[in-house]
Amino acid sequence: MLLAVPLLAGAQVFTLTSEQLTEYTAKNPFERFADGRPKVPQKFFDRAQAMSAEEVWSVLPGKGFPNQYAGDFRVLHPGKKMIGRAFTVQFMPLRPDVDGVLQDRAKQKGMSRWANQSALDMLQPGDVLVVDLFGKEEGGTIVGDNLFYYTLKATKAGGLIVDGSIRDLEGISEMDMPAYFRHVHPTPIQNVMLTGINIPVRIGGVTVMPGDMVFGDKEGVYFIPPHLVENVLDNADVIHIHDEWTRKKFDEGKYKSSDIYPSPRDPALKAEYEAYLKKRLAEIRSK
Amino acid sequence: MLLAVPLLAGAQVFTLTSEQLTEYTAKNPFERFADGRPKVPQKFFDRAQAMSAEEVWSVLPGKGFPNQYAGDFRVLHPGKKMIGRAFTVQFMPLRPDVDGVLQDRAKQKGMSRWANQSALDMLQPGDVLVVDLFGKEEGGTIVGDNLFYYTLKATKAGGLIVDGSIRDLEGISEMDMPAYFRHVHPTPIQNVMLTGINIPVRIGGVTVMPGDMVFGDKEGVYFIPPHLVENVLDNADVIHIHDEWTRKKFDEGKYKSSDIYPSPRDPALKAEYEAYLKKRLAEIRSK
Amino acid sequence: MLLAVPLLAGAQVFTLTSEQLTEYTAKNPFERFADGRPKVPQKFFDRAQAMSAEEVWSVLPGKGFPNQYAGDFRVLHPGKKMIGRAFTVQFMPLRPDVDGVLQDRAKQKGMSRWANQSALDMLQPGDVLVVDLFGKEEGGTIVGDNLFYYTLKATKAGGLIVDGSIRDLEGISEMDMPAYFRHVHPTPIQNVMLTGINIPVRIGGVTVMPGDMVFGDKEGVYFIPPHLVENVLDNADVIHIHDEWTRKKFDEGKYKSSDIYPSPRDPALKAEYEAYLKKRLAEIRSK
Amino acid sequence: MLLAVPLLAGAQVFTLTSEQLTEYTAKNPFERFADGRPKVPQKFFDRAQAMSAEEVWSVLPGKGFPNQYAGDFRVLHPGKKMIGRAFTVQFMPLRPDVDGVLQDRAKQKGMSRWANQSALDMLQPGDVLVVDLFGKEEGGTIVGDNLFYYTLKATKAGGLIVDGSIRDLEGISEMDMPAYFRHVHPTPIQNVMLTGINIPVRIGGVTVMPGDMVFGDKEGVYFIPPHLVENVLDNADVIHIHDEWTRKKFDEGKYKSSDIYPSPRDPALKAEYEAYLKKRLAEIRSK
Amino acid sequence: MLLAVPLLAGAQVFTLTSEQLTEYTAKNPFERFADGRPKVPQKFFDRAQAMSAEEVWSVLPGKGFPNQYAGDFRVLHPGKKMIGRAFTVQFMPLRPDVDGVLQDRAKQKGMSRWANQSALDMLQPGDVLVVDLFGKEEGGTIVGDNLFYYTLKATKAGGLIVDGSIRDLEGISEMDMPAYFRHVHPTPIQNVMLTGINIPVRIGGVTVMPGDMVFGDKEGVYFIPPHLVENVLDNADVIHIHDEWTRKKFDEGKYKSSDIYPSPRDPALKAEYEAYLKKRLAEIRSK
Amino acid sequence: MLLAVPLLAGAQVFTLTSEQLTEYTAKNPFERFADGRPKVPQKFFDRAQAMSAEEVWSVLPGKGFPNQYAGDFRVLHPGKKMIGRAFTVQFMPLRPDVDGVLQDRAKQKGMSRWANQSALDMLQPGDVLVVDLFGKEEGGTIVGDNLFYYTLKATKAGGLIVDGSIRDLEGISEMDMPAYFRHVHPTPIQNVMLTGINIPVRIGGVTVMPGDMVFGDKEGVYFIPPHLVENVLDNADVIHIHDEWTRKKFDEGKYKSSDIYPSPRDPALKAEYEAYLKKRLAEIRSK
User: Fold this and answer.
1) Which of A104, B35, B122, D37 could join D210 via S-S bond, C-beta 3.0 to 4.6 A?
2) What CA–CA distance (Å, rounded) separates E113 from D58?
3) CB–CB of F139/F166 below 8 Å?
């Protein structure tokens, strides 16, 4: 698969070399794929299972990243978290002059067509396929049931986000991979051209970078820059403990909300909370 | 019920005689109702249970029918297919000069009022009630729970599509008939007049003909001209087998998506697929 | 032209016979065209030049017609009133089975095609072309500049309302005929079929009857049933006088709005107003 | 808690005194809270469990209240009715000149901040929190999971309606309290100021009065003036019986819908229905 | 007129006493009306004629007021600036229980009805009528042509902003007063009740305070707190001079945009600009 | 200016080298700029003054380019054609990790900031600035009045298209350069980063290539690939003559629209038209 990267890369309009992608994601503290894409380790995915979109928010804007959330999707399996590494794909409206060049290049490399499957063929376990189809409904369908199934297999159920459509909702609904899309439509993908793979893409108000950690829950989707992943997860631990303690206090029924939340006003309660936090953090971190 | 047709027909603004409807649906290969409406046989309904909107698409545009799909509905029971024969009804904004004529005619025929129930009273088993209420939300409510129940009984759970609203979502949700609507609202139907029964009506971007086979799944609704029904279903059999084979191959984990889909590139695989298709088709067709 | 009516009529899906149209517009106090369409006399058009949409409203709902106004149009020449008789045309999404029948019939009658020009060819002086293209933007363009010019010539600048698009806004802008449309788009009309001429059509929330008096100003468009035309115009005279008097009083600067409007509270002022109304009405009516 | 009312009230921009609220709700036949808010008795909440939005509609417009329904919400738990007393809260876009005055006042009363929690702290069992956040999505989030939990505890699962957003849908989804909102967003509430508690507020096209009985089902939300509550519930009993009888008749399969609905046409059936109604009403009322 | 204030005030639901309004606008450096409303002096209106929305923006957010702009209006006379003092009015959806109390009170004070004209009757020269009709289109029409004319006379062409509709666009278009509205519709105002006069109201994302200086141009409308008016105008003088100088430099054709704008990079040019600014400011200020 | 190209190019995320741009626009029959951008000659701009969007449509789809039209803009000067060469610019939502790299690079090259002015500084006479700001309203304002003025000077009034906003509509309205935008807003551009100059960008449903001939009229905007420019203009000559002849015939008042349009049915008329076309074409071409 790795060898495929340089071969394929030449067919798209926009390309980042491994060096360029490394430069733009210079703060990434983790390993990288051969194409320069950051590789957030699997262990963080496991920790993220208990997190919510909310908890990502409490870190990112404070670090200068207020634009990493995208909402207003149809969510395929609302009870299922989506966690993985962003594999980005960009389409633009078809122009035969430009697409003709892309198809010629692809043919020279032995590919039958330069289209959505050219990108799917590059997916790896843990990837989330992130597709800019500029909100297109009719003909903006990145996959139907067969290619959804392929994506599930290739990414080990990583997931799919498309600012566009999917087709065959009926068939896809039975497959156990999270997916976020704007519309459903029975037409296959058409009247577009594939202009970029693993380049920065726009999903709603977010610039998604290849290798961002993708986190989706019932509310929407967060794209977390790799260098902030650990920070976000550590903070989520604190929030969980804070929530536990807060609700226990509310259960007691003798406090007003502002006595306890966002932080206890009474010094004794504050001390109690801090002791609780310390103890519980130690328990969690020792796992 | 059959006798009712000519009696009722005279009250509406737009009418197709049995001869006219027969002319517009001249390619219908099946029997007809007394009013000329094609009667797609029940056996095709059974076969359609395994089909998806997707699979209808793969036939109709190629036959010159690109405009037969309507989406963007609220779907009452997303897990339940809707399959039946289109029974079409058209309403227009109320004008007392026109509606007065309709009410007079209806009274002459012994009916108490010329309104939504005039159409409901004509429903037959296997019908899907298809209603053009021009997207009206308030007062565009074709049925509440009682008349939904009547429709369920009269059509044997055929179904309901309304480009408008339903009321009493609470009550209707418990009834086991598929329904597609744009809105819910508590007002009863009002400020409209009933202008046509079993005439061509528009639902979104589709002209629906009386007697079209209606097929609804999670994605949306297809209106299939009777002469293409068998074609669509035969093709769906092929697609099912193609999907089976494709996913088995993907399960093997050694192919890229473009090796297998949309059709296998390797001649040996192609032969394997074709043998599989032949065998499975024979099995299915022999049932 | 008159002979064309029965010939053409047979090609459309929905038809009202002259008798049917006469029945639906039975209250029409004026002459009719050969096809049954009411012919509101020219003299009322002249009187309507001084009227506003507002003034139509003050009569119609009280007579049981609350649904005769349509707004939210792009208005070609906002300073120019549109006044004429509704000539209605209906399109629906294309289905080749139905359209094929229409084209066959048209050919049997020596027409080259059954399409938008089939309707335009029937226009008469004083007509306003009222077209239901169900809000279609791309391909929902009833005319471009040449056929707009033809319409201008054939109707003597009667006007055009389309719940759909026009094309060639650049060229049309220079032509001196009022027009109301939803969109502009460069595509020609396509993917639709002509299903009715001079039948009831829906424009927004209005059922328009052939022969309705059409009145358009900066605000939007009113469709006035012929039997209410004189009533509306007489009432507009009263409103104009009321407005004259009211503003003269406001000009005096010594009254609050509620002293004078909607009617003077002080008995002496009331008497003054009534005398003024009587005098001015007499002047106007004597013209 | 009661003591808190006069203390807090002074901090908001808009206030109704107990006397004013009593005047505006003069028809209230029930007890009141200390702040004048009508206190619809719990027994009516129990009866309302079997009701639907539909049935509220059949009484209110006829009593001159056509504007009491709000729809187009996202419904947290569609299978769960929301029933309680309206506790209203109003926010407006932030202006530091006005908000500064509010914060100063709040500080003088020993409160840390004048914001959403100032209102939450006043909630009582049986309340439904009704919040006007003018449809704000980003930063229009009345609660996250912790304060949702507090609201659940303080109101005994009364419920929440916000013309705005909630945050942390993931966490809130697991909590057993009905909620209606326009959007979800991960941002906390910001860029607004709290301008009123228990004053008339607007939710969609409804003016909600403090103490209205709130009724929510799958369809949307009704705000029932206290003096009409008993009327609505009594009428719902009749509708339930009517529905029972109507469906039994439809089950017999020998009637058209108009024979039976909305009321039986045949005198014998009419008598049968009336006897049934009388008997069943007696049974219900005797419980 | 002044005496009317306390008399009328009692009829509305929400009232600010003169003391309360003074408190909320405590930073106002100017005189006040008897009801406490700040009275920005006429001389600032004259200076504002040369200003644009743009220039207001360059001051307000920096002073902590980012929410003072409202856009997306239909603008009656795009070439005409609107400048005056906000006179605010609030409507809410009709409830007969509440409205009945208001009408009773009004009658006790000798008024015929408590409705839109109750507010219009209080207008003064230099006022801009600012109306919250919650975006209502049908029936949300604050004035027709007669009351628009009254407003023009009473305010000396101050202006009108309505988050709702006007009616009789045809008649109003000929009157020389600026106006901003969301829609036009022929229906008169209905199904609402007048709940506040000269209280804080919401227009789009702005909380408007009575006495704010209103500034409208082609782009939209700004509501400027009185204490920032002089600041805004002084700053606009600087911007005008900056624009003069910048364009003169661009006219020379030898600079790139970034050499000159937003401020000159070259020290010599910077000095030149500063000398120019000083000289021109002196000229302007000496007028 | 030419030297600036390679210097600046390095700062953006997406870059096409001169070779790549030449490859994608290989069919360009004209000269190129140093950066590879096609340079459609001025003489075609002059010919295009008489053209309409309509006439572009009649060529491009037939050549395989159905996606070159963008509509739904606010048009600054509807009576003024916009004609020039596309100079494309792309922005994406801000991410400090990516933008930091861009700013660093820019600083290394002696630029103060990498932002909208970096692109403006590269404009040349005859350019139309085409900006993808992904429809952003607040903060999506490519220019205010000063930079609009700069653009006018630098492009010799070429023009501006932005899928986003402009600010200072008041000031810009007085400047004599065509402009197409989605919104107006007083905020300056913010929360975005400049990711590409003279790369393919998306405007609505169009992929715009650097060097496309831009043509804007009242209706909307067309982006014409250079190799089709002459074809489009030659065809427009024919359409103009066809329009002249058609209208002369309509002026005669003796033909139905279908006798003459789209082409004359009668062989004699057809011959007349063809002679006319030949003569007039010769006249035009000899100029």
Assistant:
1) D37
2) 30
3) no
Of D120, D149, D184, the CB nearest to A71: D184
Interface test with D, best of E95, E130, E163 (most D CBs within 10 A): E95
Residues in chain B, how many? Answer: 287
The Cα F214–Cα F229 span in angstroms is: 10
Could you give the CA distance from residue C175 to residue C152 in angstroms, rounded to a whole number?
8
Give the dihedral of Cα atoms E194, E195, E198, E204; nearest 10 deg: -90
Q: Are A205 and A70 in contact (CB under 8 A)?
A: yes
Q: A71 and D120: CB-CB below 8 Å?
A: no
Which residue bears the tokens 């193609």? B242
Cross-chain CB nearest to C250 (options E144, E153, E167): E153
Contact B97 C206 (CB under 8 A): no
Average pLDDT by stretches of 10, chain D with 287 residues: 43 90 97 97 95 90 97 96 98 97 93 92 97 98 97 98 97 97 97 97 98 97 98 96 97 96 95 97 88
Sign of CA dihedral C90, C91, C95, C97: positive
In this structure, the strands spanning B221-224 and C127-132 are unpaired
Contacting subunits of C (3+ beta carbon pairs below 8 A): B, E, F
Q: Give the one of D23, D64, D195 whose C-beta lies nearest to E101's C-beta.
A: D23
Torsion of CA D222, D223, D228, D230, to 10 degrees: 60
Q: Which two tokens stand for residue B188?
A: 């009863």
Instruction: Pull the structure tokens for residue D144.
Output: 């996250």
Sign of CA dihedral E130, E131, E135, E137: negative
- C-alpha distance from C162 to closest chain F C-alpha (Å): 17
What span, in angstroms and rounded, lies between the C-alpha atoms of C252 and C15?
58
Q: Tell me the ipTM for this assembly.
A: 0.95
Contact between E207 and D97 using a beta-carbon 8 Å cutoff: no
Segment B126-175, tens digit of pLDDT:
999 999 999 999 999 999 999 999 999 999 999 999 999 999 999 999 99
In order, the DSSP letters of chain E are: -TTHHHHHHTTSSB---HHHHHHHTTT--S-B-TTS-B---HHHHHHHTT--HHHHHTTTGGGT-TT-EE---EES-TTS-EEEEEEEEEEEE--HHHHHHHHHHHHHTT-S--SHHHHHTT--TTEEEEEE-TT--TT-B---HHHHHHHHHHHTS--EEEEEEES-HHHHTTS-S-EEEEEE-SSPS-SEEEEEESS-EEETTEEEPTTPEEEE-SS-EEEE-GGGHHHHHHHHHHHHHHHHHHHHHHHHT-S-HHHHSSS--SHHHHHHHHHHHHHHHHHHHH-
Backbone angles phi, psi at F158, to 5 degrees: -60, -55
DSSP H helical ranges for F76-133: 96-108, 116-120
Give the residue from C151, C165, C184, C191 with the most F CB atoms within 10 Å of its CB, the best one to mutate: C184
Residues in chain D: 287
Q: How confident is the model at residue B1 (pLDDT cuts 50, 70, 90)?
A: very low
How long is chain A?
Answer: 287
* Neighbouring C-alpha atoms within 13 Å toward the C-beta of A82: 33
* A145/B contact by beta carbon, under 8 A: yes
Question: CB E282: neighbour CB atoms within 10 A?
Answer: 9
Decide if A54 and D150 are in contact by the 8 Å CB cutoff. Answer: no
Chain C CB contacts of F69 below 8 Å: 185-186
- CA A187/CA B58 separation, integer angstroms: 8
Prediction pTM value: 0.96
In the chain, the amino acid numbered D172 is I
Judging contact as 3 or more Cβ pairs under 8 Å, the answer for E and B is: no
Distances (CA, A) of B50 to B54, B81, B217, B219, B239: 12, 9, 10, 14, 11
